[in-house]
């Protein structure tokens, strides 16, 4: 699948991005066609109309709504990747580049491909995070019967996790609260966010070794700091 170059307008970091493909109802893998040469747009506030794009399946010609492709830059900026309008002809094929070069996997057993769950509500976001933690190898991932004041959305053996499904980047206080909750529970902490993190929150998470993930609307978490990269590489 063709990648497109993406430059972050905030830190000028360059990325190679590939849109994730998911099966059309006909069974054919389908992905939003990216628009080469169009600049990425920083996501400041989310609106549901902008979070979905029309995509045409090349196998059956079905048109449906798919999550708008997004990328979280390591600087913390959430980027919206432009998509070619459904009726515009495709560009000539070109070389494919990987969207992300992960750390070497050191887990004892390679994991299968992660199968995400589309996010449409806050409840979906928590469910998607639970699926991902289970895929990483955590056992007995479940929601607390009542959500504690500290904001813990998921617990597992040796783990507490928080899922922020709002349209604002996560603040420093939320990261520190999760860290303190994890210390109190003698567990590891993991944070998931739909809108990314402010710079202070990212810096603090790096300093305390708290993994941060950003989730796009197709339900696929992406690591945004080194502790998260390490967690993906090694598993639970």
Q: How does this model look, in words?
A:
This is Restriction endonuclease type IV Mrr domain-containing protein. It comes from Streptomyces nanshensis. The protein folds into two domains: 3-80, no CATH class; 122-234, 3-Layer(aba) Sandwich (Trna Endonuclease, Chain: A, domain 1), CATH 3.40.1350. Helices cover 20% and strands 22% of the residues. It has four helices and 14 strands. The chain has helices at 122-136, 172-184, 199-208, 226-234, and strands at 4-7, 14-17, 22-23, 29-30, 41-42, 52-56, 63-67, 70-72, 78-80, 154-156, 159-164, 188-193, 212-215, 221-223. It is globular, with a radius of gyration of 18 Å.
Topology record:
Elements: E1 4-7, E2 14-17, E3 22-23, E4 29-30, E5 41-42, E6 52-56, E7 63-67, E8 70-72, E9 78-80, H1 122-136, E10 154-156, E11 159-164, H2 172-184, E12 188-193, H3 199-208, E13 212-215, E14 221-223, H4 226-234
Parallel strand pairs: 11-12, 12-13
Antiparallel strand pairs: 1-2, 3-4, 5-9, 6-7, 8-9, 10-11, 13-14
Helix pairs in contact: 2-3
């Amino acid at each position: 699948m063709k990648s497109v170059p993406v430059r972050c307008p905030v830190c000028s970091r360059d990325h190679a991005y590939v849109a994730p493909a998911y099966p059309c109802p006909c069974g054919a893998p389908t992905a939003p066609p990216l628009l080469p040469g169009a600049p990425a747009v920083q996501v400041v506030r989310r609106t549901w109309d902008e979070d979905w794009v029309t995509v045409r399946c090349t196998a059956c010609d079905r048109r449906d709504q798919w999550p708008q492709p997004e990328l979280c830059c390591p600087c913390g900026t959430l980027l919206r990747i432009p998509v070619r309008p459904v009726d515009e002809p495709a560009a000539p094929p070109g070389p494919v580049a990987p969207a992300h070069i992960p750390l070497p996997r050191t887990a004892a057993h390679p994991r299968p491909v992660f199968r995400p769950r589309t996010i449409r509500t806050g409840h979906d976001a928590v469910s998607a995070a639970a699926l991902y933690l289970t895929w990483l190898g955590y056992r007995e991932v479940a929601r607390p019967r009542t959500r504690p004041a500290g904001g813990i959305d998921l617990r597992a053996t040796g783990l507490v996790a928080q899922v922020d499904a709002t349209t604002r980047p996560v603040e420093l206080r939320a990261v520190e609260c999760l860290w303190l909750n994890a210390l109190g529970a003698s567990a590891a902490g993991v944070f998931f966010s739909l809108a990314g993190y402010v710079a202070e929150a990212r810096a603090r998470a790096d300093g305390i070794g708290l993994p941060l993930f950003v989730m796009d609307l197709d339900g696929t978490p992406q690591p945004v700091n080194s502790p998260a990269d390490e967690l993906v590489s090694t598993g639970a």
